[in-house]
Design goal:
The chain is of the alpha/beta class. It has helices spanning about 15-35, 45-55, 60-65, 90-100, 125, 165-185, 200-215, 225-235, 245-255, 300-310, 315-330, 350-360; strands spanning about 5-10, 35-40, 70-75, 105-110, 130-135, 145-155, 155-160, 185-190, 220-225, 240-245, 265-270, 280. Helix 6 (about 165-185) crosses helix 7.
Length: about 375
Amino acid sequence: MTTTHRITLLAGDGIGPEITAVARLLLEAVGRRHGFSLSFNEQPIGGAAIDATGEPLPASTLEACRQADAVLMGSIGAPRYDTLPRDKRPETGLLGLRRGMGLFANLRPVAISPSLIDASTLRREVIEGVDLMVVRELTGGIYFGTPKGRVDAEDGVRAFNTMAYSDHEIDRIARVAFELARQRRGRLCSVDKANVLDVSQLWRERVEAIHLTSFSEISLSHMYVDNAAMQLVRDPRQFDVLLTGNLFGDILSDEAAMLSGSIGMLPSASLGESGPGLFEPIHGSAPDIAGQDKANPLATVLSAAMLLRIGLKEEEAAADLEQAVEQVLAAGYRTADLMAPGCRPLGCMAMGDQLLAAVENSPSAG
Ligand code: NAD
């Protein structure tokens, strides 16, 4: 009997519908080739959900995500929602989804395609061979800490957030990062600001404790976040697994994205202790190019590959998708964000057509 995997699809806002449409076609294509099928349950989130229901994360969307085998998301957010109260904004829907699904571990792999070495703003000799994984804590830290808010003070208005981590939150994300280091090259660099922040001092203590008790064979180092930002562009090859809190990982992984040539290249997986994972590109809804068929769909396609590998255990299908991406890049196809001067870019859909052809003509057809 053919297996049917249940995918909840959250297209979201801006370029979200364009890039997820491409990823869906490709998932269906690799499914046909590898003898499984996929059922897609499309649900609104972010601005699209605000328009439809008044809420950025309707209860029915969260429930559909919890019931799925895996969730594929595009992106959320658009300028016209920026003036809404914080609890009604698209970004609140995404934070609520991560929290509601218990997705505390965000995995952001950064590998440089050989075909894109010259697309990066950094020199070839700096980025050639870069292969690192950012493991970002996703449901704690300053995005969720309390108290937070805005008050009228004597000398004007004051706004504040709280960066807080408890020991068990640090321990569980550290374990994920150590496990990954064990499967990779055995090196973990934990990023913090322990010279200034109490929360970082606890972070460092707990990472060291987990290291000592369970992962002593892993080579562990600590780095202040400001130095990590500098080292990422100075010598990114020094890193294997980078462990970060929520805010630091958000910033450092966007920086790391540029090693690969474009933010349109980087996928991610968000995982909990159990239950379905959420797979999405690391970029946002790119309102400046939304609806113009200019978006690079590759980060979403590579997120779909992570969905297949991690979420559905369909390793061969995942490898097929990744190979298709390499093949179209090697053949010289590029969306506008990756263009060299003088070349004519492909649109999002045309890039999807090339990927589809690469999947359908790949030699591993079975
Ligand atoms: P962004 O990532 O949307 O865009 C930054 C720049 O990168 C833009 O110039 C954009 O055109 C370009 N870009 C991004 N993805 C691209 C792609 N696939 N192909 C080609 N170019 C691409 O970041 P922003 O402009 O800071 O934020 C826009 C909106 O997205 C905001 O509302 C923000 O809150 C939201 N956002 C959402 C997520 C998410 O859904 N996970 C993440 C970050 C930002």
